[in-house]
Amino acid sequence: HLGCTCWYMSNPEYISAGVLLQGFDVAKKALLEFLDAFKTPVDPTDREMLCCISRTSLATKLAPHLAEQLTDIVTDAVLTIRQPDQPLDLYMVEIMHMRHKLDQDTRLVRGLVLDHGARHPDMPKRVEDAYILTANISLEYEKSEVNAGFFYSSAEQREALVAAERAYTDERCRKVIELKKKVCDGTNKGFVLINQKGIDPMCLDMLAREGVLALRRAKRRNMERLTLACGGFAVNSVEELTPECLGHAGAVYEHVLGEDKYTFVEDVKHPHSCTILIKGPNDHTIAQIKDAVRDGLRAVKNVIEDKAVVLGAGAFEVAAAQHLRSTVKKQAQGRSKLGVEAFAEALLGFVKILAENSGYDAQDVLIKLQEEHERGNAVGLDISTGEPLDPQVAGIYDNFIVKRQIILSAPIIASQLLLVDEVMRAGINMRGK
To answer: How many CB atoms lie within 10 A of CB 29?
Structure first.
């Protein structure tokens, strides 16, 4: 929007595009320096500040009551996955949705929600105080890659051949059961197997008889999240099966919704992965919440990485436009001042849009804000009253890196639009000749 407004305000019909672009470049460099001075350093561990950023992002996309509820969810999700001296990986926050109940039922699961359940009817539906085995072991009969034939002359020989075929797979399944007995016998603890590869019906039956809750063909990204949420590590062969490889969860249970099954892994001790479970009565509501949550997660992540914020509600734009007109424009040479003026007017377009969308007269609002800034008060627009307000008191902040990116990209977009006009004008002149 800023780039298009710069192009619109430049009035290229009467001013050379090259002159305007010089002014845009001067304004861009000055604004980047002004932004560094205007930003507010923050402590990335300050939860209240992170909540303010999250609330500001969510409130632009959702109803106020829902934005307030999701503020804590989004902030806690980012703080859950944060680890010292490691970059934040938002992929460790799983965003799941269920077309169920109302949007107010959206919640944060400090663990994991898997979009499938157990594949055997006799397996337990809920396991308390459970060991979690995360595995990538094939527990299904696999055919040979080359053609092979078996010949027998009696029923006994056929049974022996069938048993030999199953022996390898059954032996791996028995080793899992042995580990379960080793850690669970004599206690009230449960045992859960979450396998990335398949588990055939025979092995499922063996596991069900031992009271093991087994899930097969789990997604790879969930396998990574499981070890972060529950502890332990993923094993790739039965030789690695030791008590040290097991994680722990306070509760693992299955939830059936229509034909879909969901498995909840909750009450983990040291979660470094979590799930935001979005609920809603229809697909539109779910999609709206999902987009808002993604933006909120990125906003909080940016603050932690930048360690700085910028006053929102239009406060920065008014202050930046005033700086361009009072200081930068006087230092610019010749017609490049017109480019600086166009940039300043384009910045004020943000405030005008805020005022118009809130039902107020844009010029009246802009004059009030500019008068306050001339007195040295960095104020923004209160959309509920139309009066100036202190964004710091209201807790309205924007991302530093986002403002910086806008300032860098807007002149480039405007220059491309201006150059298109120049090329078209040159073509018309050539045809005239």
So the answer is: 13
